[in-house]
Amino acid sequence: MNPRLLHILILLAALAGPARAVQQVIQLLEAQTDATHVGYTLVNPLNAATVFDITLFAVSYPSAQPGPPDPIAPAGWSAQVLALADWSQPIGGVPIGGVNFRPSWAQFTGRAFTSAFAADAAVLGYYVDIALSAGQWSYVPIDPVHPGASLAGFSRGGTVASDFLAAGPVDAGTFVESIFDAPGTGMGTFSGAATTVPEPSAALLVLLGAGLCGCCRRRRQRERSV
Fold first, then answer.
1. pLDDT tens-place string over residues 132-151
2. pTM (two decimals)
3. What is the C-alpha to C-alpha distance for residues 157 and 71, in angstroms, rounded to an integer?
4. Is residue 30 a contact partner of residue 39, using CB atoms and an 8 Å limit?
5. Helix (H) or strand (E) holding 40
6. pLDDT in tens, 160-186
7. I need a labelling partner for 120 at 20 to 30 A (CA). Which of 16, 65, 198, 219 fits?
């Protein structure tokens, strides 16, 4: 299925649920895109309790499932398989024979691994690449998910049922170098359970049904007004 269409279907299917007042929290929408893969859409509201750019998120997944997780990230983002020991290592890991100057997941988020996940959880990390220049961290090569925006194109092997932790700077556009000494400085975080939405085929039926009901309603109104 076309990724853009899948993104639209996931978002509309989520909105087709019970009426809610005003969105207040970051959401990770998940859908079983086929028998062996899960797709994610990250939604960053404008009016969350703490407003921040989302530059990374980590998501747990059922470990008792066949096959590897095979994480896929949209353009400009990278993916990493994480375990408890990796949380204290630089984001993206340390290449063989190289040096990674990024902060660790713990330093960036200011959160312990076990504050969001079980110690033995199977976890994937997705992140926007960052670079250090003149004492400031900056986004490379694209912007993250700003408040009021959403981003699809994340996926993994397996089945639905995820918990997640999202994080990023409250001061848009720059990172704070002092997070090495004071983890989480200037950062916003949010953790919770992913929201499972209908499969694309089911979502499409919901939308078609809603459209048909709307057409019938308008037709009855016109007939009554004649």
1. 666 566 666 677 899 999 99
2. 0.76
3. 7
4. yes
5. strand 37-44
6. 888 999 999 887 656 666 788 888 888
7. 198
Mean pLDDT of 155-164: 90
As a whole number of angstroms, the distance between CA 214 and CA 69 comes to: 41
**Residue in 201, 151, 195, 149 with CA at minimum distance from that of residue 172:** 149
**Amino acid 78: pLDDT:** 92
Q: Which residues lie closer than 8 Å to 169 by C-beta, 6 or more apart?
A: 52, 53, 55, 175, 176, 186, 187, 188
Q: Cα separation of 99 and 93, whole Å?
A: 9
Given a cut of 50, is residue 215 above it in pLDDT? no
Are the C-beta atoms of 4 and 185 separated by less than 8 Å? Answer: no
> Please, what is the end-to-end C-alpha distance for the chain in angstroms?
43
Phi and psi torsions of 23, nearest 5°: -65, 130
Q: DSSP assignment of 82-121, as one string?
A: E-GGGGGSBTT-PPTT----SPBHHHHH---GGGTS-TT-
What span, in angstroms and rounded, lies between the C-alpha atoms of 124 and 201? 27
Count helices and strands in the chain by DSSP H and E runs:
3, 11
